[in-house]
Design a protein that fits this description.
Length: 611
Amino acid sequence: MYCTRKITDDITYIGGSDRKLSLFEAVYPVPAGVSYNSYLVMDEKTVLFDTVDNSIGELFFENLAHELGGKPLDYIVVQHMEPDHSATLRRLLVSHPETKILCSAKALAMIGQFFEAPAAERVQIIKEGDTLTTGRHTFSFVAAPMVHWPEVMMTYDTTDKILFTADAFGTFGALDGAVFADEVDFMRDYLDEARRYYCNIVGKYGTQVQAVLKKAAGLDIQMICPLHGFVWRRETDSIIAKYDLWSKYEAEEKGVLIAYTSVYGGTQAAAELAAAKLRDKGINVKMYDASMTHTSYIVAEAFRFSHIIFATTTYNNGIFIKMEELLHDLTAHNFSNKTVAIIENGTWAPVAGKLIRAMLEPCKNITILDEQLTIKSAMKPADEAALDAMIEKIAADFVKPVPQQHDTAVDNSALFKISYGLYVLTANENGRDNGCIINTAQLLTDNPRRITVAVNKKNLTHDMMMSTGKFNISVLTDKAPFQTYKDFGFVSGRDKEKIADAPIEFARSENGVVYLTENVNAFISGKVIDSKDYGSHTLFTAEVTEARIIGEGDSVTYDIYQKHIKPKPAPTKKKGFICTVCGFIYEGEELPPDYECPLCGHGAADFEPLA
Ligand code: FEO
Protein backbone atom coordinates (compact mmCIF):
# COMPACT_ATOMS: atom_id res chain seq x y z
CA MET A 1 0.00 0.00 0.00
CA TYR A 2 1.37 3.43 -0.91
CA CYS A 3 2.13 5.95 1.83
CA THR A 4 2.90 9.51 0.74
CA ARG A 5 2.67 13.02 2.23
CA LYS A 6 2.07 16.33 0.46
CA ILE A 7 4.92 18.80 0.90
CA THR A 8 3.19 21.50 -1.16
CA ASP A 9 0.24 21.42 -3.57
CA ASP A 10 2.36 19.85 -6.29
CA ILE A 11 5.31 18.29 -4.45
CA THR A 12 4.91 14.98 -2.64
CA TYR A 13 7.15 13.03 -0.29
CA ILE A 14 7.38 9.48 -1.63
CA GLY A 15 10.22 8.11 0.51
CA GLY A 16 10.00 5.95 3.62
CA SER A 17 11.75 4.67 6.73
CA ASP A 18 13.76 1.56 7.55
CA ARG A 19 13.72 0.32 11.15
CA LYS A 20 15.43 -3.01 10.49
CA LEU A 21 18.84 -1.59 9.63
CA SER A 22 21.43 -2.15 12.37
CA LEU A 23 24.35 -0.18 11.02
CA PHE A 24 24.01 2.74 8.60
CA GLU A 25 26.91 2.68 6.14
CA ALA A 26 27.89 -0.55 7.93
CA VAL A 27 29.29 1.62 10.75
CA TYR A 28 26.72 3.74 12.58
CA PRO A 29 24.06 2.22 14.84
CA VAL A 30 20.58 3.51 14.01
CA PRO A 31 18.42 2.16 16.85
CA ALA A 32 15.54 4.46 15.85
CA GLY A 33 15.87 3.65 12.15
CA VAL A 34 16.56 5.99 9.25
CA SER A 35 14.51 7.56 6.49
CA TYR A 36 15.33 7.72 2.80
CA ASN A 37 13.56 10.70 1.28
CA SER A 38 12.42 11.19 -2.29
CA TYR A 39 10.33 14.06 -3.66
CA LEU A 40 8.06 14.03 -6.72
CA VAL A 41 7.10 17.29 -8.45
CA MET A 42 3.88 17.09 -10.46
CA ASP A 43 4.23 20.09 -12.75
CA GLU A 44 3.57 20.26 -16.52
CA LYS A 45 6.69 18.11 -16.57
CA THR A 46 7.20 15.65 -13.74
CA VAL A 47 10.45 15.57 -11.78
CA LEU A 48 11.76 13.16 -9.17
CA PHE A 49 14.47 14.22 -6.72
CA ASP A 50 16.51 11.10 -6.01
CA THR A 51 15.49 7.51 -5.51
CA VAL A 52 15.92 5.49 -2.30
CA ASP A 53 17.75 2.64 -0.64
CA ASN A 54 16.84 -0.91 -1.68
CA SER A 55 15.38 -1.60 1.76
CA ILE A 56 12.30 0.52 1.00
CA GLY A 57 12.32 -0.03 -2.77
CA GLU A 58 8.92 -1.72 -2.99
CA LEU A 59 7.20 1.08 -1.06
CA PHE A 60 8.99 3.70 -3.13
CA PHE A 61 7.87 2.26 -6.48
CA GLU A 62 4.31 1.89 -5.22
CA ASN A 63 4.36 5.51 -4.04
CA LEU A 64 5.77 6.68 -7.35
CA ALA A 65 3.17 4.83 -9.42
CA HIS A 66 0.35 6.10 -7.21
CA GLU A 67 1.42 9.74 -7.42
CA LEU A 68 2.21 9.67 -11.15
CA GLY A 69 -1.24 8.21 -11.80
CA GLY A 70 -0.19 6.98 -15.22
CA LYS A 71 1.69 10.13 -16.24
CA PRO A 72 5.24 9.76 -17.53
CA LEU A 73 8.17 10.61 -15.29
CA ASP A 74 10.00 13.24 -17.31
CA TYR A 75 13.09 13.81 -15.16
CA ILE A 76 15.04 12.15 -12.37
CA VAL A 77 17.47 14.56 -10.71
CA VAL A 78 20.30 12.52 -9.19
CA GLN A 79 21.64 14.87 -6.55
CA HIS A 80 23.71 12.23 -4.77
CA MET A 81 24.89 8.86 -6.06
CA GLU A 82 25.56 7.15 -2.74
CA PRO A 83 23.50 3.94 -2.87
CA ASP A 84 21.27 4.90 0.07
CA HIS A 85 19.72 7.29 -2.48
CA SER A 86 20.48 5.59 -5.76
CA ALA A 87 20.28 1.83 -5.23
CA THR A 88 16.85 1.80 -6.90
CA LEU A 89 17.93 4.07 -9.77
CA ARG A 90 18.70 1.24 -12.18
CA ARG A 91 15.23 -0.28 -11.68
CA LEU A 92 13.68 3.17 -12.15
CA LEU A 93 15.52 3.72 -15.42
CA VAL A 94 14.36 0.32 -16.68
CA SER A 95 10.74 0.78 -15.60
CA HIS A 96 10.61 4.38 -16.87
CA PRO A 97 12.40 4.43 -20.23
CA GLU A 98 10.93 7.88 -20.88
CA THR A 99 12.83 9.44 -17.97
CA LYS A 100 15.77 11.75 -18.57
CA ILE A 101 18.59 11.83 -15.99
CA LEU A 102 19.84 15.20 -14.74
CA CYS A 103 23.08 14.94 -12.77
CA SER A 104 26.59 16.31 -12.44
CA ALA A 105 29.37 14.90 -14.61
CA LYS A 106 30.85 13.19 -11.56
CA ALA A 107 27.51 11.57 -10.75
CA LEU A 108 27.25 10.25 -14.30
CA ALA A 109 30.63 8.58 -13.91
CA MET A 110 29.41 6.99 -10.68
CA ILE A 111 26.23 5.70 -12.34
CA GLY A 112 28.53 3.86 -14.75
CA GLN A 113 30.57 2.51 -11.86
CA PHE A 114 27.65 1.29 -9.76
CA PHE A 115 25.47 0.09 -12.68
CA GLU A 116 26.17 0.65 -16.34
CA ALA A 117 26.47 3.91 -18.24
CA PRO A 118 23.05 5.07 -19.46
CA ALA A 119 22.49 5.93 -23.12
CA ALA A 120 23.85 9.39 -23.81
CA GLU A 121 20.47 10.71 -25.04
CA ARG A 122 18.97 9.97 -21.65
CA VAL A 123 21.43 12.17 -19.77
CA GLN A 124 21.64 15.92 -19.27
CA ILE A 125 24.70 17.04 -17.33
CA ILE A 126 23.97 19.87 -14.91
CA LYS A 127 26.33 22.28 -13.25
CA GLU A 128 26.18 25.26 -10.91
CA GLY A 129 23.68 27.85 -12.09
CA ASP A 130 21.96 25.66 -14.72
CA THR A 131 18.18 25.77 -14.58
CA LEU A 132 15.29 23.49 -15.43
CA THR A 133 11.80 24.88 -16.06
CA THR A 134 9.01 22.37 -15.74
CA GLY A 135 5.98 24.68 -16.13
CA ARG A 136 5.23 26.59 -12.95
CA HIS A 137 8.57 25.68 -11.35
CA THR A 138 12.04 26.75 -12.29
CA PHE A 139 14.82 24.81 -10.59
CA SER A 140 18.34 26.14 -10.26
CA PHE A 141 21.21 23.79 -9.50
CA VAL A 142 23.80 24.42 -6.80
CA ALA A 143 27.09 22.51 -6.65
CA ALA A 144 27.76 21.07 -3.17
CA PRO A 145 30.93 19.00 -3.58
CA MET A 146 31.86 16.84 -0.56
CA VAL A 147 28.54 17.42 1.16
CA HIS A 148 28.88 14.50 1.34
CA TRP A 149 30.48 13.09 -1.86
CA PRO A 150 32.16 15.03 -4.66
CA GLU A 151 29.29 14.69 -7.16
CA VAL A 152 26.61 16.23 -4.95
CA MET A 153 24.30 18.89 -6.36
CA MET A 154 21.59 20.68 -4.44
CA THR A 155 18.55 22.15 -6.16
CA TYR A 156 16.78 25.43 -5.47
CA ASP A 157 13.17 25.78 -6.52
CA THR A 158 13.09 29.49 -7.41
CA THR A 159 9.28 29.37 -7.62
CA ASP A 160 8.41 28.08 -4.16
CA LYS A 161 11.78 28.92 -2.51
CA ILE A 162 12.53 25.30 -1.60
CA LEU A 163 16.08 24.04 -1.25
CA PHE A 164 16.56 20.32 -1.92
CA THR A 165 19.72 19.68 0.05
CA ALA A 166 20.79 16.06 -0.56
CA ASP A 167 22.41 14.73 2.67
CA ALA A 168 22.66 18.15 4.32
CA PHE A 169 20.20 18.91 7.16
CA GLY A 170 19.42 15.22 7.52
CA THR A 171 19.07 13.21 10.68
CA PHE A 172 19.14 9.62 11.78
CA GLY A 173 15.78 8.25 12.88
CA ALA A 174 12.62 7.01 11.21
CA LEU A 175 9.90 9.59 10.62
CA ASP A 176 7.01 7.82 12.36
CA GLY A 177 4.40 9.30 10.04
CA ALA A 178 5.65 12.85 10.33
CA VAL A 179 7.39 14.57 7.46
CA PHE A 180 7.82 18.13 8.77
CA ALA A 181 10.20 19.00 11.62
CA ASP A 182 7.45 21.11 13.21
CA GLU A 183 5.25 18.02 13.60
CA VAL A 184 7.63 16.74 16.28
CA ASP A 185 9.63 18.32 19.08
CA PHE A 186 12.77 18.32 16.97
CA MET A 187 15.07 20.17 19.34
CA ARG A 188 14.11 17.89 22.24
CA ASP A 189 13.78 14.54 20.49
CA TYR A 190 15.86 14.65 17.31
CA LEU A 191 18.63 17.22 17.66
CA ASP A 192 21.08 14.73 19.19
CA GLU A 193 20.61 12.35 16.27
CA ALA A 194 20.84 15.21 13.75
CA ARG A 195 24.14 16.18 15.36
CA ARG A 196 25.38 12.58 15.35
CA TYR A 197 24.38 12.26 11.70
CA TYR A 198 26.11 15.53 10.74
CA CYS A 199 29.32 15.02 12.72
CA ASN A 200 29.91 11.46 11.58
CA ILE A 201 28.69 11.65 7.99
CA VAL A 202 29.61 15.19 6.92
CA GLY A 203 31.66 16.43 9.88
CA LYS A 204 35.00 16.11 8.12
CA TYR A 205 33.87 18.53 5.42
CA GLY A 206 33.23 21.67 7.45
CA THR A 207 34.92 23.92 4.89
CA GLN A 208 32.72 22.59 2.12
CA VAL A 209 29.59 22.93 4.28
CA GLN A 210 30.56 26.53 5.02
CA ALA A 211 30.89 27.16 1.28
CA VAL A 212 27.36 25.85 0.68
CA LEU A 213 25.97 27.84 3.63
CA LYS A 214 27.43 30.99 2.08
CA LYS A 215 25.59 30.20 -1.16
CA ALA A 216 22.42 29.45 0.81
CA ALA A 217 22.69 32.80 2.60
CA GLY A 218 21.99 34.47 -0.74
CA LEU A 219 18.75 32.53 -1.23
CA ASP A 220 15.29 33.11 0.16
CA ILE A 221 14.74 29.66 1.69
CA GLN A 222 11.20 28.90 2.80
CA MET A 223 11.61 25.14 2.95
CA ILE A 224 14.46 22.63 3.21
CA CYS A 225 14.01 19.14 1.79
CA PRO A 226 16.86 16.79 2.78
CA LEU A 227 17.33 13.16 1.77
CA HIS A 228 17.15 11.91 5.37
CA GLY A 229 14.99 13.14 8.22
CA PHE A 230 12.44 15.91 8.29
CA VAL A 231 11.41 18.64 5.89
CA TRP A 232 11.86 22.12 7.36
CA ARG A 233 9.01 24.49 6.48
CA ARG A 234 9.31 26.67 9.60
CA GLU A 235 12.26 28.07 11.52
CA THR A 236 14.70 26.97 8.82
CA ASP A 237 17.14 29.38 10.45
CA SER A 238 17.37 27.14 13.51
CA ILE A 239 18.80 24.12 11.69
CA ILE A 240 20.93 26.33 9.42
CA ALA A 241 22.38 27.94 12.56
CA LYS A 242 23.27 24.50 13.94
CA TYR A 243 25.01 23.60 10.68
CA ASP A 244 26.89 26.87 10.81
CA LEU A 245 28.17 26.06 14.33
CA TRP A 246 28.99 22.45 13.58
CA SER A 247 30.76 23.18 10.31
CA LYS A 248 32.86 25.85 12.03
CA TYR A 249 33.69 23.27 14.72
CA GLU A 250 32.43 25.68 17.38
CA ALA A 251 31.17 24.22 20.64
CA GLU A 252 27.41 24.26 21.09
CA GLU A 253 27.57 23.95 24.83
CA LYS A 254 29.90 25.07 27.58
CA GLY A 255 30.59 21.86 29.48
CA VAL A 256 32.95 18.93 29.84
CA LEU A 257 32.79 15.64 28.00
CA ILE A 258 34.69 12.91 29.82
CA ALA A 259 35.50 10.01 27.55
CA TYR A 260 37.26 7.22 29.38
CA THR A 261 38.31 3.61 29.05
CA SER A 262 39.14 1.50 32.05
CA VAL A 263 40.26 -2.12 32.11
CA TYR A 264 40.11 -2.78 35.85
CA GLY A 265 38.35 0.33 37.16
CA GLY A 266 41.28 2.52 38.23
CA THR A 267 40.94 4.97 35.34
CA GLN A 268 37.18 5.10 35.71
CA ALA A 269 37.53 5.96 39.40
CA ALA A 270 39.78 8.91 38.54
CA ALA A 271 37.35 10.02 35.80
CA GLU A 272 34.41 9.81 38.21
CA LEU A 273 36.26 11.95 40.74
CA ALA A 274 37.03 14.51 38.04
CA ALA A 275 33.34 14.59 37.12
CA ALA A 276 32.28 15.06 40.74
CA LYS A 277 34.76 17.89 41.25
CA LEU A 278 33.50 19.62 38.09
CA ARG A 279 29.90 19.23 39.26
CA ASP A 280 30.90 20.77 42.59
CA LYS A 281 31.79 23.84 40.57
CA GLY A 282 28.45 23.86 38.77
CA ILE A 283 29.93 22.65 35.48
CA ASN A 284 27.90 20.37 33.21
CA VAL A 285 29.54 16.99 32.62
CA LYS A 286 28.69 14.10 30.32
CA MET A 287 30.63 10.84 30.71
CA TYR A 288 31.04 7.97 28.30
CA ASP A 289 32.88 4.68 28.59
CA ALA A 290 34.41 4.48 25.12
CA SER A 291 34.55 0.69 25.40
CA MET A 292 30.78 0.55 25.80
CA THR A 293 29.39 3.45 23.76
CA HIS A 294 29.70 3.48 19.99
CA THR A 295 32.29 5.98 18.85
CA SER A 296 29.78 7.89 16.70
CA TYR A 297 27.91 9.06 19.81
CA ILE A 298 31.09 10.28 21.50
CA VAL A 299 32.29 12.04 18.33
CA ALA A 300 29.01 13.95 18.26
CA GLU A 301 29.37 14.89 21.92
CA ALA A 302 32.94 16.03 21.26
CA PHE A 303 31.55 18.42 18.62
CA ARG A 304 28.97 19.63 21.14
CA PHE A 305 31.06 20.36 24.23
CA SER A 306 33.71 23.01 24.78
CA HIS A 307 36.04 20.89 26.95
CA ILE A 308 37.00 17.23 26.82
CA ILE A 309 38.85 15.03 29.28
CA PHE A 310 40.32 11.87 27.80
CA ALA A 311 41.02 9.31 30.52
CA THR A 312 42.64 6.09 29.45
CA THR A 313 45.11 3.36 30.13
CA THR A 314 48.39 2.52 28.55
CA TYR A 315 48.07 -0.75 26.63
CA ASN A 316 50.76 -2.65 24.73
CA ASN A 317 52.92 0.43 25.18
CA GLY A 318 50.28 2.47 23.34
CA ILE A 319 46.85 3.98 23.91
CA PHE A 320 44.10 1.56 24.95
CA ILE A 321 42.55 0.35 21.72
CA LYS A 322 39.01 1.74 22.15
CA MET A 323 40.38 5.14 23.14
CA GLU A 324 42.79 5.07 20.20
CA GLU A 325 39.84 4.28 17.93
CA LEU A 326 37.92 7.25 19.33
CA LEU A 327 40.86 9.61 18.93
CA HIS A 328 41.44 8.37 15.41
CA ASP A 329 37.81 8.98 14.55
CA LEU A 330 37.93 12.47 16.05
CA THR A 331 41.04 13.48 14.13
CA ALA A 332 39.50 12.01 10.96
CA HIS A 333 36.54 14.35 11.50
CA ASN A 334 38.69 17.48 11.88
CA PHE A 335 38.42 17.68 15.66
CA SER A 336 39.13 21.39 16.33
CA ASN A 337 38.63 24.38 18.64
CA LYS A 338 38.49 22.55 21.98
CA THR A 339 40.25 22.50 25.31
CA VAL A 340 41.49 19.04 26.22
CA ALA A 341 42.78 17.55 29.46
CA ILE A 342 44.29 14.10 29.92
CA ILE A 343 44.17 11.47 32.63
CA GLU A 344 46.54 8.61 31.91
CA ASN A 345 47.05 5.33 33.68
CA GLY A 346 49.76 2.71 33.46
CA THR A 347 50.84 0.10 35.93
CA TRP A 348 54.52 0.14 34.99
CA ALA A 349 55.12 2.61 32.14
CA PRO A 350 52.29 5.11 31.54
CA VAL A 351 52.71 6.66 28.08
CA ALA A 352 49.12 7.14 26.92
CA GLY A 353 49.18 10.88 27.70
CA LYS A 354 52.23 11.52 25.56
CA LEU A 355 50.72 9.51 22.71
CA ILE A 356 47.37 11.33 22.93
CA ARG A 357 49.19 14.64 22.69
CA ALA A 358 50.99 13.39 19.59
CA MET A 359 47.73 12.21 18.00
CA LEU A 360 46.04 15.57 18.61
CA GLU A 361 49.04 17.61 17.60
CA PRO A 362 47.92 18.05 13.93
CA CYS A 363 44.40 19.16 14.99
CA LYS A 364 43.54 22.82 14.61
CA ASN A 365 43.20 25.01 17.69
CA ILE A 366 43.22 22.24 20.28
CA THR A 367 44.51 23.47 23.64
CA ILE A 368 45.89 20.56 25.63
CA LEU A 369 46.28 21.52 29.28
CA ASP A 370 49.65 21.02 30.91
CA GLU A 371 47.74 20.03 34.04
CA GLN A 372 47.68 16.27 33.49
CA LEU A 373 46.90 13.48 35.93
CA THR A 374 49.10 10.41 35.76
CA ILE A 375 48.17 7.46 37.92
CA LYS A 376 49.81 4.12 38.36
CA SER A 377 47.13 1.40 38.53
CA ALA A 378 44.78 3.31 40.84
CA MET A 379 44.43 6.88 42.05
CA LYS A 380 45.80 7.67 45.50
CA PRO A 381 45.20 10.68 47.78
CA ALA A 382 48.64 11.93 46.78
CA ASP A 383 47.41 12.22 43.17
CA GLU A 384 44.51 14.48 44.09
CA ALA A 385 46.51 17.71 43.88
CA ALA A 386 47.25 17.07 40.20
CA LEU A 387 43.57 16.40 39.52
CA ASP A 388 42.54 19.53 41.43
CA ALA A 389 44.97 21.61 39.39
CA MET A 390 43.37 20.26 36.19
CA ILE A 391 39.86 20.97 37.45
CA GLU A 392 40.78 24.50 38.52
CA LYS A 393 42.27 25.18 35.10
CA ILE A 394 39.11 23.98 33.36
CA ALA A 395 36.81 25.80 35.78
CA ALA A 396 38.61 29.07 35.03
CA ASP A 397 36.83 29.00 31.64
CA PHE A 398 33.38 28.85 33.24
CA VAL A 399 31.12 31.27 35.11
CA LYS A 400 32.07 31.09 38.76
CA PRO A 401 29.45 30.72 41.46
CA VAL A 402 29.70 33.42 44.08
CA PRO A 403 29.10 32.21 47.63
CA GLN A 404 26.17 34.00 49.23
CA GLN A 405 26.39 35.53 52.70
CA HIS A 406 22.85 36.42 53.69
CA ASP A 407 20.83 35.88 56.83
CA THR A 408 17.43 35.34 55.26
CA ALA A 409 16.63 33.99 51.86
CA VAL A 410 13.96 36.52 50.91
CA ASP A 411 14.44 40.25 51.25
CA ASN A 412 10.98 41.78 50.75
CA SER A 413 12.46 45.02 49.48
CA ALA A 414 13.80 43.11 46.47
CA LEU A 415 10.23 42.24 45.54
CA PHE A 416 9.32 45.94 45.54
CA LYS A 417 11.71 46.42 42.62
CA ILE A 418 9.18 44.73 40.35
CA SER A 419 7.44 47.23 38.07
CA TYR A 420 6.11 47.10 34.51
CA GLY A 421 9.74 46.84 33.63
CA LEU A 422 12.24 44.60 31.90
CA TYR A 423 14.04 41.62 33.34
CA VAL A 424 16.59 39.04 32.39
CA LEU A 425 14.98 35.67 33.06
CA THR A 426 17.55 32.91 33.59
CA ALA A 427 17.34 29.15 33.97
CA ASN A 428 19.65 26.19 33.90
CA GLU A 429 19.35 22.64 32.66
CA ASN A 430 21.98 19.90 32.55
CA GLY A 431 24.57 22.43 33.59
CA ARG A 432 23.81 24.80 30.72
CA ASP A 433 22.77 28.36 31.60
CA ASN A 434 20.51 30.49 29.45
CA GLY A 435 18.58 33.72 29.71
CA CYS A 436 16.11 35.92 27.86
CA ILE A 437 14.42 39.29 28.25
CA ILE A 438 10.88 39.42 29.63
CA ASN A 439 8.55 42.28 30.57
CA THR A 440 5.92 40.16 32.29
CA ALA A 441 6.96 39.56 35.91
CA GLN A 442 4.41 40.39 38.59
CA LEU A 443 4.08 39.95 42.33
CA LEU A 444 0.98 37.76 42.68
CA THR A 445 0.53 37.34 46.44
CA ASP A 446 2.45 38.64 49.42
CA ASN A 447 1.75 35.75 51.78
CA PRO A 448 2.76 33.25 50.60
CA ARG A 449 5.18 35.14 48.38
CA ARG A 450 4.36 34.23 44.82
CA ILE A 451 5.18 35.76 41.48
CA THR A 452 4.05 35.12 37.90
CA VAL A 453 6.11 35.31 34.73
CA ALA A 454 4.86 34.82 31.18
CA VAL A 455 7.43 33.35 28.81
CA ASN A 456 7.33 32.87 25.06
CA LYS A 457 7.40 29.16 24.26
CA LYS A 458 10.02 29.69 21.59
CA ASN A 459 12.58 30.64 24.21
CA LEU A 460 15.02 27.98 25.34
CA THR A 461 14.65 29.42 28.85
CA HIS A 462 10.98 28.47 28.69
CA ASP A 463 11.86 24.83 28.03
CA MET A 464 14.42 24.84 30.83
CA MET A 465 11.81 26.21 33.26
CA MET A 466 9.32 23.57 32.17
CA SER A 467 11.92 20.86 32.82
CA THR A 468 13.51 22.09 36.02
CA GLY A 469 10.91 24.38 37.61
CA LYS A 470 13.65 26.80 38.65
CA PHE A 471 14.48 30.30 37.44
CA ASN A 472 15.78 33.71 38.42
CA ILE A 473 14.72 37.15 37.32
CA SER A 474 17.31 39.91 37.39
CA VAL A 475 15.68 43.33 37.67
CA LEU A 476 17.36 45.63 35.14
CA THR A 477 17.98 49.23 36.10
CA ASP A 478 17.65 52.25 33.84
CA LYS A 479 21.46 52.17 33.46
CA ALA A 480 21.42 48.85 31.58
CA PRO A 481 22.70 49.52 28.03
CA PHE A 482 20.81 48.55 24.90
CA GLN A 483 23.48 45.88 24.32
CA THR A 484 22.13 43.91 27.29
CA TYR A 485 18.69 43.82 25.68
CA LYS A 486 20.29 42.73 22.41
CA ASP A 487 22.42 40.04 24.05
CA PHE A 488 19.48 38.43 25.82
CA GLY A 489 16.49 39.44 23.73
CA PHE A 490 17.45 39.34 20.08
CA VAL A 491 19.11 35.93 19.76
CA SER A 492 17.96 32.51 20.83
CA GLY A 493 19.83 30.34 23.28
CA ARG A 494 19.16 27.55 20.80
CA ASP A 495 21.65 29.23 18.47
CA LYS A 496 24.14 30.85 20.81
CA GLU A 497 25.73 30.49 24.24
CA LYS A 498 24.23 33.61 25.78
CA ILE A 499 25.55 33.33 29.33
CA ALA A 500 28.95 31.74 28.90
CA ASP A 501 29.87 34.12 26.09
CA ALA A 502 28.20 37.27 27.45
CA PRO A 503 30.57 40.17 28.26
CA ILE A 504 28.84 40.73 31.59
CA GLU A 505 29.24 39.47 35.15
CA PHE A 506 27.05 36.79 36.71
CA ALA A 507 26.76 35.05 40.03
CA ARG A 508 24.83 31.95 41.02
CA SER A 509 22.02 31.95 43.57
CA GLU A 510 21.09 29.18 45.98
CA ASN A 511 18.91 27.41 43.40
CA GLY A 512 21.98 26.99 41.17
CA VAL A 513 20.72 29.42 38.52
CA VAL A 514 22.79 32.44 37.46
CA TYR A 515 21.72 36.08 37.83
CA LEU A 516 23.23 39.26 36.47
CA THR A 517 25.32 41.40 38.78
CA GLU A 518 25.74 44.45 36.52
CA ASN A 519 23.08 47.14 35.98
CA VAL A 520 20.69 45.14 38.11
CA ASN A 521 19.22 46.22 41.48
CA ALA A 522 17.72 42.90 42.62
CA PHE A 523 17.28 39.31 41.72
CA ILE A 524 14.42 36.99 42.60
CA SER A 525 14.53 33.19 42.52
CA GLY A 526 11.37 31.26 41.74
CA LYS A 527 10.23 27.66 42.09
CA VAL A 528 7.43 26.88 39.65
CA ILE A 529 4.24 25.59 41.28
CA ASP A 530 1.90 25.94 38.32
CA SER A 531 2.00 26.62 34.59
CA LYS A 532 -0.79 27.49 32.20
CA ASP A 533 -0.68 27.40 28.43
CA TYR A 534 -1.72 30.66 26.74
CA GLY A 535 -0.89 29.78 23.14
CA SER A 536 2.32 31.59 22.32
CA HIS A 537 3.27 31.92 26.02
CA THR A 538 3.21 29.89 29.20
CA LEU A 539 2.23 31.67 32.40
CA PHE A 540 4.31 30.32 35.28
CA THR A 541 3.30 30.81 38.89
CA ALA A 542 6.18 30.41 41.30
CA GLU A 543 7.06 30.55 44.95
CA VAL A 544 9.79 33.03 45.76
CA THR A 545 12.68 31.03 47.22
CA GLU A 546 15.27 33.81 47.39
CA ALA A 547 15.23 37.56 46.76
CA ARG A 548 18.11 39.98 47.25
CA ILE A 549 18.90 43.63 46.71
CA ILE A 550 22.22 43.53 44.87
CA GLY A 551 22.66 46.98 43.39
CA GLU A 552 21.78 50.65 43.26
CA GLY A 553 19.55 52.41 40.77
CA ASP A 554 15.93 52.51 39.73
CA SER A 555 14.25 49.62 38.00
CA VAL A 556 13.90 50.32 34.31
CA THR A 557 10.30 50.74 33.19
CA TYR A 558 8.98 49.79 29.79
CA ASP A 559 8.30 53.48 29.18
CA ILE A 560 11.93 54.46 29.94
CA TYR A 561 13.17 51.68 27.68
CA GLN A 562 10.97 52.85 24.83
CA LYS A 563 11.82 56.53 25.20
CA HIS A 564 15.46 56.56 26.24
CA ILE A 565 17.23 53.22 25.73
CA LYS A 566 15.99 51.77 22.48
CA PRO A 567 17.77 53.53 19.56
CA LYS A 568 15.56 55.83 17.52
CA PRO A 569 15.03 54.68 13.93
CA ALA A 570 16.80 56.74 11.30
CA PRO A 571 14.43 58.94 9.28
CA THR A 572 13.28 57.00 6.24
CA LYS A 573 11.02 57.44 3.25
CA LYS A 574 10.41 53.70 3.13
CA LYS A 575 6.93 52.29 3.65
CA GLY A 576 6.81 49.82 6.44
CA PHE A 577 6.39 49.03 10.11
CA ILE A 578 8.79 49.20 13.03
CA CYS A 579 8.94 46.79 15.94
CA THR A 580 8.40 48.96 19.02
CA VAL A 581 10.36 46.47 21.12
CA CYS A 582 13.63 46.17 19.23
CA GLY A 583 13.43 48.58 16.30
CA PHE A 584 13.39 46.00 13.49
CA ILE A 585 11.84 47.44 10.32
CA TYR A 586 9.47 45.42 8.15
CA GLU A 587 9.28 46.91 4.68
CA GLY A 588 5.94 46.72 2.88
CA GLU A 589 2.52 48.27 2.54
CA GLU A 590 0.81 45.85 4.90
CA LEU A 591 2.03 43.90 7.91
CA PRO A 592 0.70 40.32 7.92
CA PRO A 593 -1.42 39.84 11.07
CA ASP A 594 0.57 36.74 12.07
CA TYR A 595 3.94 38.39 11.50
CA GLU A 596 6.61 37.86 14.14
CA CYS A 597 9.66 40.05 14.52
CA PRO A 598 12.67 38.01 13.33
CA LEU A 599 14.88 39.79 15.86
CA CYS A 600 12.96 39.69 19.12
CA GLY A 601 9.99 37.44 18.31
CA HIS A 602 7.26 39.95 19.23
CA GLY A 603 4.07 39.83 17.18
CA ALA A 604 2.32 42.22 14.82
CA ALA A 605 0.62 44.02 17.74
CA ASP A 606 4.02 45.40 18.77
CA PHE A 607 4.66 47.00 15.37
CA GLU A 608 3.67 50.50 14.37
CA PRO A 609 3.77 52.19 10.95
CA LEU A 610 6.98 54.03 10.05
CA ALA A 611 6.52 57.76 10.41
FE1 FEO B 1 22.63 9.65 2.55
FE2 FEO B 1 25.76 10.38 1.50
O1 FEO B 1 24.20 9.42 1.57
